Amino acid sequence: MDNNTNNILISEYKSKLETQRYSPNTIRSYLYCIRIFLRDFEKIDIYKVEEKRIAKYINFLINERKISRSTQKQMIGCISYFYIEILKIRINLKNLYPKRGKMKLPTFLSKVEVRNLIDSIRNIKHRCIVMTLYAGGLRIGEALDLKIKDVDSKTGIIIIRNPKGNNDRVVPLSEVLISHLRDYYKLYMPKVLLFEGLKGGRYSESSVQQIIKRAAIKSKIRKNVTAHTFRHSFATHLISDGTDIRIVQELLGHKSIKTTQIYTHITDVNKRKIKSPLDNI
């Protein structure tokens, strides 16, 4: 396929995703994946690519490019959508999705670690981004997609629009956070998005991850801390404090309660006040 044809298909693909109101994060991810797919199949007529060929391609990505399980799922979803919605070719790639792996407990920070990490960040914009991640249990994309109008100090809520689950949701607006946001706003005067880059537009996700890495090192936290760690910490702390798991599910925007239940594995030992037998010798 020539570049011009690919560009037309990508443009149609983007338009279709937007029309069906996929989240900005999903659109960005799918566009990235489809560009890779079209580049890898540039010498092949994609209209004639069979499911077996795509299966071999996914296997190649797993074994040669070492893609993660989440990237594998994203790539399969992207390709399926492309064939069914854009090329109008019926295709079934469900058998290529990875089976559910072993449950891994998420990394989370203690309340003291969260406070120390936030306190170590001197730049008020950077501090507010991290505080927003933790205060609302937001995904990094959700935090960076927030518009000024989404933060409602009168009603005390933050509106998360078009998140991963597609349905808008609300989370409570921390009084501590709004106080910091007011100071930040006076200094930076963002125009549309709550957190904008130096030249306007969306703030860089990679920059946020670097900010967090540096803050974790400065705070002498040895855990692998990422932006998502604050979402895990948010859920863990709420459940530890006795918040009903159904409420936590709604705040996180999880479709299934099973996804939220992973945090009960972390908190159950503390809630039951179980002691090690070593302490009773």
Short description:
The chain is built from 13 helices and three strands, in the order αααααααβββαααααα. It has 281 residues and is mainly alpha-helical.
Report on this model:
This protein folds into 2 domains: 3-96, DNA polymerase, domain 1, CATH 1.10.150.130; 111-272, Intergrase catalytic core (hpI Integrase, Chain A, Orthogonal Bundle), CATH 1.10.443.10. 56% of the residues lie in helices and 4% in strands. It is built from 13 helices and 3 strands; from the N terminus they run αααααααβββαααααα. It has helices spanning 3-19, 24-40, 51-63, 69-86, 111-119, 124-136, 140-144, 175-188, 205-218, 227-240, 245-252, 257-260, 262-272, and strands at residues 151-152, 157-160, 169-172. It has a 3-stranded antiparallel β-sheet. It is globular. The chain starts with a helix and ends in a 9-residue tail after the last helix. The model has no long low-confidence stretch (mean pLDDT 91).
Would you spell out the secondary-structure blueprint of this structure?
Elements: H1 3-19, H2 24-40, H3 51-63, H4 69-86, H5 111-119, H6 124-136, H7 140-144, E1 151-152, E2 157-160, E3 169-172, H8 175-188, H9 205-218, H10 227-240, H11 245-252, H12 257-260, H13 262-272
Antiparallel strand pairs: 1-2, 2-3
